Amino acid sequence: MRGRGSFHYAGRVPDDPPEEVPLDFAREWVEFVDPSDPEHLIRADLTWLASAWTCIFGRGCAGVVEGRPDDGCCSHGAFFADEDDLHRVTAAVADLTDEDWQLAPVGRSAWTERDDADDAEDGARSLRTRVVDGACVFLNRPGFPGGMGCALHRMALQHDLHPLTTKPDVCWQLPVRREQEHVDRPDGTRVLLTTLGEFDRRGWGAGGHDLHWWCTGAPAAHVSPEPLVDTYGAELTVLIGAPAYAELRRLTELRLDHGLVAPHPASPRPVPVELHRRRPGG
User: Fold this and answer.
1) Strands 127-129, 131-132: parallel, antiparallel or unpaired by DSSP?
2) Is the pLDDT at 97 greater than 70, yes or no?
């Protein structure tokens, strides 16, 4: 992809997307045991979590589909992780008003649809949010009086809630990727290994390389004055628990203070080390 002289845009961006760095580069990882569970091992990508990435929806996001920058990453419906995910979003949808949700007239009767792939799973994992006119049914389009963007996200903010309480799991977790597996150690013990990393293009599977643009590797999106481990504190706490998140922040701060974290090539400069001034919950 061709680069540009500036990575800051206002409003709609050209069809030629902003630059992205190569997918493979040196990364710094840390492993530690969950302070609250000796059988839970966490492996975290500090290069990603110490990066300056932030969501730039509506502020230069080029969108995952060419010609649809206003969709951001909402051009495709969001799949549900499990029944709990579906039930939580269902409850949030019931709280949406017509002032919150532009497509309420068409979405209230049917806001999910079933994946028609031959290998589609059963139950909640076979469902996704409905796609209407090329994007998610919950995406408010430009010009809507209630504001553009995810209706579930906007409603949460209006009620002083975190959007992770109203949006599908896949939506609020992006662009952090959590993978979990049970690992048998040579001594016969078993631990749950949780890996936290960057949800880059490859996280989408084979089709990820065909996305028009993806933000995690784009310098345009690495403009936060604070590291991702800080700005995504609420999400990371849900993903690994409060004690483990506190330890993750401590280790990130310690390694940044000593300059031991391999920098993300999309971040224009090291993120200032301010974590020690705001401990978890501060």
Assistant:
1) unpaired
2) yes
**Continuous segment of H or E residues that includes residue 86:** helix 83-95
Rounded alpha-carbon distances, angstroms, from residue 65 to 62, 166, 210, 220, 267: 8, 25, 9, 17, 24
Residue 179 is predicted with a pLDDT of 97
The contacts found for 143-148 with CB under 8 angstroms, 24 or more apart, are: 144/102, 145/99, 146/99, 146/100, 146/101, 146/102, 148/58, 148/70
Sign of CA dihedral 253, 255, 259, 264: negative
Tell me the per-residue pLDDT of 215-250, one tens digit each, with 9 for 90 and over.
Answer: 999 999 999 999 999 999 999 999 999 999 999 999
Residue 271: pLDDT band (50, 70, 90) is: low
Please give the average per-residue pLDDT across 10-35, as a whole number.
81
- Percent of all residues in the chain with a pLDDT value above 90, rounded to a whole number: 78
Q: What is the per-residue burial (b if ≥16 Cβ within 10 Å, else e) of 123-151?
A: ebbbbbbbebeebbbbbbeeebebbbbbb
pTM for the whole structure: 0.87
Structure tokens at 48: 């990603």
* Separation CA 104–CA 109 (nearest Å): 9
DSSP for 7-61, written as a single string? ----SSPPSSPPP---S-----EEEEE-TT-TTEEEEEEHHHHTS-B---TTTT-
Question: What separation in angstroms does the CA of 208 have from each of 1, 15, 41, 269?
Answer: 15, 18, 29, 27
202-227 mean pLDDT = 93
Cα–Cα distance measured from residue 148 to residue 52, given in angstroms and rounded to the nearest whole number: 25
